[in-house]
Specification:
heterodimer, A: 2 domains, B: 2 domains, 4% strand, extended, transmembrane helix (chain A), cell membrane (chain A)
């Protein structure tokens, strides 16, 4: 067997092993994608727009944030800012996984991090730290493929299904429910709880600000209060 | 309903997509410039999701047509509280959605 074929065989093995490790995480994106699709169609986004949002941003929380805010009449600038603030946490993942992707070529390093969403990050990091994946880009790609595919398909199904559901069922309420399901994961200690209470309270208190700016004010208040709590507790 | 046109929506998707990709890529590409994120910065970054998600969801639950509504006639708030308790103990998104929607429908159509 010549060298190229041997290398292709290894790539295939790496990508398949990644897909096996990544498959369970893909299941977790199903309710998320469905809800995004349902919510997107209910605020008037088209199927291509909803699919594009899911496929190109590949971040559930930020996508739902945009849809929720636009549906509530927020200005586009506030919706964009909120989505970017929500996604700023990915810089942590980026820094944390960077040493493991160091030896990959330029193309890999510029493209692979696109898939750096929570579960993919956790699975790949775990494999790298056990020395199982040999730092191959193909393995990472394999881990990401099931989640990305199921997420996009779930969104499409959500759009199709959502278009036929009567308004009175209030399926859009699934969006705040997802936010509730997610926020508990970030409530790790007293400062994060205080940040949430202050953030929510602040946003409600200044809700009359134009363009949904109250969201950004509330977020800032929450971060400041959490920061102060961290400082007091050392 | 959003009144923004198709072009504006697509531009917003593009901006968020590129910005998100930059956040995810920055340290992988610049590796070596920054040895490790200081613990202090980690802890501050950990505050952001809690603060921003609460700021998004609280108005959805506590307000009705712009006015504070914390009575038992606010079905969304009650269902949200039930969902929060379920989320806290199960950490399961699917169960949280099912129980939350079930509670809302019960309050809206049965009670």
């Amino acid at each position: 067997m010549n060298r190229t074929l041997g290398a292709l065989d290894t790539h295939r093995e790496d990508i398949l092993r990644g897909m096996r490790d990544g498959a369970p995480a893909a299941l977790g994106t199903v309710p998320y994608g469905l809800v995004l699709g349902i919510a997107a169609v209910s605020i008037g986004l088209t199927l291509p727009q909803a699919t594009g949002l899911a496929a190109f941003v590949f971040a559930g929380l930020a996508s739902l944030t945009m849809v929720d805010l636009l549906g509530g009449g927020a200005s586009i600038a506030v919706a964009i800012a909120a989505a970017l603030i929500v996604n700023f946490r990915f810089t942590m993942y980026s820094a944390s996984i960077a040493p493991h992707l160091e030896e990959l070529g330029r193309v890999w390093r510029w493209t692979l991090p696109f898939f750096l969403v929570g579960p993919v990050y956790a699975i790949a990091l775990n494999a790298y730290e056990r020395g199982r994946a040999d730092h191959h880009g193909w393995y990472f790609l394999g881990v990401a493929i099931p989640s990305w595919t199921v997420w996009v398909v779930g969104t499409v199904v959500g759009v199709v299904v959502g278009a036929g559901v009567p308004e009175s069922l209030q399926l859009g309420f699934a969006v705040p429910l997802i936010f509730i399901a997610i926020i508990v994961r970030f409530l790790e200690d007293v400062p994060t709880v205080l940040a949430a209470v202050a953030g929510g309270g602040g946003a409600v208190a200044v809700v009359d600000l134009p363009f949904n700016l109250g969201l950004l004010v509330g977020t800032a208040v929450g971060i400041l209060v959490g920061f102060a709590a961290q400082a007091v507790r050392g | 309903m959003t009144d923004y046109g198709s072009l504006v929506i697509w531009m917003a998707i593009a901006v968020v997509a590129v910005g998100t990709w930059v956040f995810r890529t920055v340290f992988v590409v610049l590796f070596g410039l920054l040895d490790d994120v200081p613990q202090r910065v980690h802890r501050i970054l950990a505050l952001i999701p809690a603060a921003v998600i609460a700021a998004i969801v609280a108005p959805d639950l506590f307000l009705r047509e712009g006015a504070l509504a914390v009575g038992i006639d606010n079905e969304q708030l009650l269902a949200g509280i039930v969902a929060f308790v379920v989320a806290w103990y199960t950490e399961n998104m699917f169960v949280t959605i099912v129980v939350g929607m079930g509670t809302l429908w019960t309050l809206l159509f049965i009670v």
